[in-house]
Amino acid sequence: MSEILIRALWVLGGVLFFLSVYIIANKALREMTERRVAWTRGELEPKILEYVNGKGERLGAALPPLGRADRRVVEDVLLDNGRFLKGNARDRITAACEDLGYVRDRMRQLKSSRWWRRAEAAEKLGTMKSPKAAAELIALMRDEMPEVRMRAARALGQLETRSSVKPLIGTLQDPNRWSALRIADILAGMGPEAADELVESFATLPAKARVAAVDCLGRVKSHRAAGLLIKLLSDPDRDIRARAAHSLGLIGDPNFTPDLQRALKDPAWPVRAMAAKALGKLGRPEAVAPLFDLLRDREWWVRINAAEGLRSMGDSGLAALVNAIDSEDRYARHAAVATLEGAGVLDQYVEKLVSADEKEREAALTLIRKIVAAERTDHLMQAASRHAQEKVREQLSRLLTPPEVKVQVKA
Amino acid sequence: MSHPKILVADDDSTIRRFIVTLLADRGYEIHEAVDGEQAFKVAESVRPDLMLLDLIMPYRDGFDVLYDLKHDPGTSEIPIIIMSVKDREEEIVKGLNMGAEDYVVKPFNSLELVARVRKILERENRRAG
Question: What is the pTM of this model?
């Protein structure tokens, strides 16, 4: 019995010993590899950066013969720098990736039986930005793994070639396989070329994809999409009308003002809300009056966006908000006060309570009395207890204290 | 100004090394800072002729550093170019309103960056007489 126990202890000891040796050796090997990579990077990086910054025609000519591990380091340096560069330096990185065979290697890796290798290869090809990879990446968008398909789509977006726009728009036709929002994100990053194609294919897109496409058109800020977006303000789908109004605001051309003013009368509140916000971005003075009227809308989101729109319009909009504090409509009063608070306008007036300029003091007193009358005093109460200047605190406390009610006692 | 001093403040070492190579090759004396705290300290001690400032950095963000540098009489005259991935209009306007000379959005064009640096340094040189 004791012999069996001793043998078991020996076996256990042996296993623990080999396990320790394995862990130590593995750690040492990893550290040695890391040091070697850092050393190689230190040696090669200056030559790579010199090339990227315009020295020499080919990177290959400036580098010593590269082993497999060295090739990986060079690829990492090129792609790390590719993240934050554009223009000539970026083009030289792409040329080096093609010249040194990285594009070819990664294209071969796209056919790997392991999905994560295909995904990694797609991602790297996107960063390399070589148009040579476009056809393979388009083919990869039919991969069985969703993650691989999405990385291929992102990589195509990074290539920024016209040939990659159509297949990306094509994915919008298939909402079961692709997230329209993520594809719209990719397309928005591709700029005006993507917008042109989207405008052309818009009529063929399914409903969900059309909403994402309208969003994308606004984010690209392409004037060439303006005609379509204005037409979509009359689309039967209220979501499309709302997103079209939002996108027109993003493009920001003041000539859209009359169309967006019409959208303020839309029966669907999301359209009115988006149109109000968009009009604020365009900043035309003729939009002040209709936005002021919209502060009485029955939907709170519309009222808040109308107030926000007025705030974005500068002095004329802010003056309208100050006037709205007198409004008979409780909702309009509250939306106006909330926006003035949020924009810091109220704080500016509080400061003016102790201004040396009498007119400024009067204006501040008038505004604060209006807010007290509108019964939206939370912000002022806070200022009355926390403001740095004692005089301001005193003034505010006086203004916030309700007048004493005199009770006549009959004898 | 024989070798103008440029401070590069960015927590991304790859970007720092790229800019150092780019500008050192053109004869500038480069100093580096790896975070917001260090950026302020190096700017105070080195008094660079120009500073390239990232916005997203550990300890103190770029806007914070910009504010302090512009409110310190010893450093308020240092021209600062903000370099950031933040590309929203509000951020660009905020940076310029806070006193930055220029705002470069990442990814950036390296030749454009060199031209901007050169232009600002030439103007400062003329101003100094």
Answer: 0.72
